[in-house]
Amino acid sequence: MDIDLSPKMPKKSYGGAGGSYHAWCPNELPMLRQGNIGAGKLLLEKGGLALPRYSDSAKVAYVLQGNGVAGIVLPEKEEKVLAIKTGDTIALPFGVITWWFNKDDTELQVLFLGDTKTAHKPGSFTDFFLTGSNGIFTGFSMEFVCRAWDVDESTAKSLVGSQTGNGIIKVDSGVRMPEPNKDHRSGMALNCLEAPLDVDIKGGGRVVVLNTKNLPLVGEVGLGADLVRLDGNAMCSPGFSCDSALQVTYIVRGSGRAQVVGVDGKRVLETTVKAGMLFIVPRFFVVSKISDNEGLEWFSIISTPNPIFTHMAGRTSAWKALSPEVLQASFNVSADVEKTFRSKRMNICYGSGELILAVGVLVRNALVGDGEMGALKSLEEDYHIIDANFLQFCASRGIFSVEDFLVHDVSMLMASADKLSNSDRLKQGINQLVLITETYHQPWMNGLMLLEDREQNKHYISTGSESFDVLLQGGLREGHVTELVGPSSSGKTQVCFQVASNVALKKGNVVFFDSGNSFSPTRIKQMVTHISGSEENKVNGSVEEAMRHIECHAVFDIYTLLDLLHQLKLNLKSQPQKKSTDLIIIDSISSLIAPILGGSNAQGHALMVSLGYLLKDLSHQHNIAVLVTNHMVSGEGGTLKPALGESWRNIPHVQLQLSQHHTTTNIYGVYILRHPYMASGRSVNFMIP
């Protein structure tokens, strides 16, 4: 691979009195274009305002320095105004509108790293400004502007032409800007300098990993990220990403040395890195870093939300799994030399002030999640056959969780166990795991059982829209999982709010799982008010009563959702005579599942299918209507299709596609993609107040 990997500094793209924007150029850092990665840095002086804009790329923002305010408008959501400070990380999905403001004397510096696969220019971000001399409405004729904004020509000219600044302006000291709302930070920002440490090794370093558990929007961005702080003379062990992910690293502070080795053992990079530099490690290349005396700190993104690393040093290295005979022959050394090497690879090695810090492995573990649900070790107490020897047997084959076990060939594991002295006990452990995994799968139903289920007196839950209910022959059916799919701004969240409001107003119980910080009590109140009528006393009482019937849970990853659903299932079983839940809503399910899929990640697919079966079991056994939302992705020829692939496609009983009317903002269309009792293709328009 003959390409320049040397670290680079950014160059100024534009700016003025309020600050400037700097970007790394693909022509100078070719890996940006080759890896479809964009990188930029915003610098704002006191009073500097980065005008509202949206981008052609999903990004992760990291505050390098200073304090300020950020405005964020997610599609179909209200504006979030956040106080930001050094160490804050914010995930910015597609379609998000942002503005940035610095009210302090210290310069505000914000780093942006992201994926440019869908960008206009591979390796570069393109921002579309809402206002300013290059704002998108400067390109429209006054006729279009007047009609779009419903204003006269004089007002339109003032709105479009008064702001002569370009991208960044300086706000007069007398102008008041929005005050941050501390409640808006929840689920939107994570401070890496204050967050719980995923790794903390004395004399070595500290690591904080961003995942859907501590920053839920990471799932929608589709990137992993981490902040690593090495102490003086510490080492990040040599390692590579074995799932084709790119590592994009920005040096925040300090200095050190980095080496990258590529094909045929060729060292393709040996350099000194220092604050402000950016460099990219190609797929499968091995990288290692050693900090100088003052330490080294960097912020990285990885081009998959669920990276898998293999390290070549330390107790988590791949050497540990290789047999002594293979190593001796491969190195062409004596048994004594191999024995010495083996004794070192079984432990973390401490030198004079140096420590091998296996960051990549810990990054992967934290991103996948550390819930006890899938960890084999957590099964020891309940299953005596799963003991230390069995866990060691599994670990030597890369099996650390039930999900890992699901993707291994059981017959091959049995054959491996047969070669060992304790084979009988190991095979008992394998059989025990097979029994455990069977609990994830719903039993088969024959045709008669399906017919009986169809003819049961299951009720329908109204969507709150007469035309929508007519299309579905009554509404959402109890015992069914109904999926709403649609692009951004197609009304998915609004339909969830309307159905929840309608059920709660009729004293039905709703469990609402919110994965994107989208639940809005204010919007629920508006809908309840509209449904219940206009009498003030009646409305106030209805709102209060309805809100008592909606139980909302913020869920940031699939593990939390599974835990909550299992707890709900236990609660329902403990009260079989009392129907405590009428409707389950998950908005959105794709933001929880997408982060764990990661290409051919079979463990993620197993978890997804397990979640689907659990939802179908809850709905069927307890006569609950389940409503989930899913976004859409580009398919063949650029046509949109529901996300999550074919494995998920067959889980929902009903699949409906939403769209927003092209001229009226509160008119939506719904189209039947799949229904067990009706032909696909039927559609209606409906209104959401």
Automatic annotation (TrEMBL):
<dbReference type="Pfam" id="PF00190">
    <property type="entry name" value="Cupin_1"/>
</dbReference>
<dbReference type="GO" id="GO:0005815">
    <property type="term" value="C:microtubule organizing center"/>
</dbReference>
<dbReference type="Pfam" id="PF08423">
    <property type="entry name" value="Rad51"/>
</dbReference>
<dbReference type="InterPro" id="IPR014710">
    <property type="entry name" value="RmlC-like_jellyroll"/>
</dbReference>
<dbReference type="GO" id="GO:0000400">
    <property type="term" value="F:four-way junction DNA binding"/>
</dbReference>
<dbReference type="GO" id="GO:0140664">
    <property type="term" value="F:ATP-dependent DNA damage sensor activity"/>
</dbReference>
<keyword id="KW-0238">DNA-binding</keyword>
<dbReference type="GO" id="GO:0003697">
    <property type="term" value="F:single-stranded DNA binding"/>
</dbReference>
<dbReference type="InterPro" id="IPR013632">
    <property type="entry name" value="Rad51_C"/>
</dbReference>
<keyword id="KW-1015">Disulfide bond</keyword>
<dbReference type="GO" id="GO:0033063">
    <property type="term" value="C:Rad51B-Rad51C-Rad51D-XRCC2 complex"/>
</dbReference>
<dbReference type="GO" id="GO:0000723">
    <property type="term" value="P:telomere maintenance"/>
</dbReference>
<keyword id="KW-0547">Nucleotide-binding</keyword>
<keyword id="KW-0227">DNA damage</keyword>
<dbReference type="GO" id="GO:0042148">
    <property type="term" value="P:DNA strand invasion"/>
</dbReference>
<feature type="domain" description="RecA family profile 1">
    <location>
        <begin position="457"/>
        <end position="632"/>
    </location>
</feature>
<comment type="similarity">
    <text>Belongs to the RecA family. RAD51 subfamily.</text>
</comment>
<comment type="similarity">
    <text>Belongs to the 11S seed storage protein (globulins) family.</text>
</comment>
<dbReference type="InterPro" id="IPR006045">
    <property type="entry name" value="Cupin_1"/>
</dbReference>
<keyword id="KW-0708">Seed storage protein</keyword>
<comment type="function">
    <text>Involved in the homologous recombination repair (HRR) pathway of double-stranded DNA breaks arising during DNA replication or induced by DNA-damaging agents.</text>
</comment>
<dbReference type="InterPro" id="IPR020588">
    <property type="entry name" value="RecA_ATP-bd"/>
</dbReference>
<dbReference type="InterPro" id="IPR011051">
    <property type="entry name" value="RmlC_Cupin_sf"/>
</dbReference>
<keyword id="KW-0233">DNA recombination</keyword>
<dbReference type="InterPro" id="IPR006044">
    <property type="entry name" value="11S_seedstore_pln"/>
</dbReference>
<keyword id="KW-0234">DNA repair</keyword>
<dbReference type="InterPro" id="IPR047323">
    <property type="entry name" value="Rad51D_C"/>
</dbReference>
<dbReference type="GO" id="GO:0007131">
    <property type="term" value="P:reciprocal meiotic recombination"/>
</dbReference>
<dbReference type="GO" id="GO:0005657">
    <property type="term" value="C:replication fork"/>
</dbReference>
<keyword id="KW-0758">Storage protein</keyword>
<dbReference type="InterPro" id="IPR051988">
    <property type="entry name" value="HRR_RAD51_Paralog"/>
</dbReference>
<keyword id="KW-0067">ATP-binding</keyword>
<dbReference type="GO" id="GO:0045735">
    <property type="term" value="F:nutrient reservoir activity"/>
</dbReference>
<dbReference type="InterPro" id="IPR027417">
    <property type="entry name" value="P-loop_NTPase"/>
</dbReference>
<keyword id="KW-0539">Nucleus</keyword>
<dbReference type="GO" id="GO:0005524">
    <property type="term" value="F:ATP binding"/>
</dbReference>
<dbReference type="GO" id="GO:0000724">
    <property type="term" value="P:double-strand break repair via homologous recombination"/>
</dbReference>
<protein>
    <recommendedName>
        <fullName>RecA family profile 1 domain-containing protein</fullName>
    </recommendedName>
</protein>
